[in-house]
Specification:
single chain; alpha+beta
Length: 383
């Protein structure tokens, strides 16, 4: 076994990694979702977001294993970070002098195949990898490697966005002491967050345009829709300071028409009716992401073979404790025995998460096409 070398820029690399304040934090769904997609694309049982610090590799997300960290000297990722400009691929570790007698090869977890795309920050420092692992040899194709690289870039963008949000929280605490700095700091952070969102969206669009496999194109396009939903709210909050009662309907209309344009579906009409409701920003974020998932599913599947269609979204007061969302389409419908039959597995999971965040349960209505009802527990009371 040959232990990985220490990069010549190791002090700067460790300082950059520490600046993200991400080591030893709890799992986060966004990182887990990217790891899941990587495993699906490379067809491996194990994938992870791995960060390499001074003495160990620590896993921000781990799919297919329960390992939380591992010694750096035994890690494949320790070798991968030495080459920040390329994906580090070991088709069969048993035939590689560096790894053939490594304890993680001859023993659990029996790493035979490894591919790691470095997580490179804006200074060119490799902080870790997005990697996939299997117990059998693999010879990944060019498009699989390109997709893994694209996803590793998304991990870095998520880390940057997470870092910006942490900085925003710290800034807000400081602003309670020195309010005069508020305008300058918020303006800077807004542009940073907006820039990161635009970078992620642009990269997804580029890879979507260059990708021939429809399944992978769909993954990239769905991710674009989620980013657009978050960006809309962020932009509104930056310019006006809040999502007002009068602006919720405009926000939801913009979201749906942006999605129609994103999925390039023709001859679609909308029936969007929103009562004047007081809804908190956290509710708006989860609601927008839930609507994104359901409308994306409709645009992909509901109007296949039809020349036109209609999307419906009604948001109204239900009683003193709940609002009600009615959302769906007049398309070809889904089999009654499985509401999620036409939704990809990840989409079903996300819809369940967003519905739970809204403290509601999505119910299929008995009508033409596919229509759902969701009772949303009020987070804030009307004055």
């Amino acid at each position: 076994m040959i232990e990985p070398l220490i990069p010549i820029n190791e002090p700067e690399r460790l300082d950059s990694l520490a600046s993200y304040e991400i080591l030893d934090t709890v799992p986060e769904k966004d990182f887990e979702n990217i790891a899941k997609i990587a495993a699906q694309i490379l067809n491996t049982p194990i994938s992870c977001v791995s960060l390499v610090d001074e003495k160990r590799q620590w896993f921000k997300s781990m799919i297919g294993s329960t390992i939380k960290e591992a010694p750096r000297e035994l890690s494949f990722c320790g070798h991968a970070i030495l080459c920040p400009d390329e994906v580090f691929i070991i088709p069969d570790s048993r035939k590689d002098e560096r790894f053939k007698d490594n304890p993680v090869v001859i023993g659990e977890p029996n790493i035979i195949f490894y591919a790691g795309a470095p997580l490179v920050d804006s200074k060119g420092l490799s902080l870790g990898t997005l990697c996939v692992i299997d117990k059998v040899p693999h010879h990944p194709g060019k498009r699989q490697i390109e997709a893994l690289t694209a996803l590793s870039n998304q991990v870095v963008s998520l880390m940057e966005l997470r870092k910006s949000i942490l900085e925003l929280n710290k800034a807000n605490a400081q602003l309670e002491i020195d309010n005069k700095r508020k305008s300058t700091l918020l303006n800077d952070i807004h542009h940073r967050i907006n820039n990161h969102l635009q970078i992620v969206s642009s990269m997804l669009n580029m890879h979507c345009d260059n990708e021939e496999e429809e399944r992978i194109r769909s993954v990239f396009k769905d991710a674009q829709g989620k980013i657009a939903s978050i960006a809309l709210i962020h932009e509104k909050m930056y310019h006006s300071g809040e999502i007002g009662i009068d602006s919720i309907e405009d926000h939801l209309k913009t979201l749906i028409w942006d999605m129609i344009e994103l999925y390039s579906v023709k001859n679609i009409t909308t029936d969007i009716r929103v009562e004047k409701l007081e809804i908190g920003i956290e509710t708006i974020v989860s609601l927008g992401l839930l609507i994104n998932e359901i409308i994306a599913n409709a645009l992909k599947y509901a109007f296949v073979g039809r020349g036109s269609g209609k999307l419906t979204l009604h948001l109204k007061k239900y009683d003193d404790d709940y609002h009600e969302l009615i959302i769906g389409d007049d398309g070809i419908g889904m089999p009654r025995e499985s509401v999620g039959n036409k939704l990809d597995r990840l989409g079903r999971e996300l819809i369940g998460i967003f519905a739970a965040q809204l403290e509601g349960e999505l119910v299929r209505l008995d009508c033409e096409g596919t229509m759902f009802s969701l009772k949303i527990k009020k987070i804030e009371s009307n004055p």
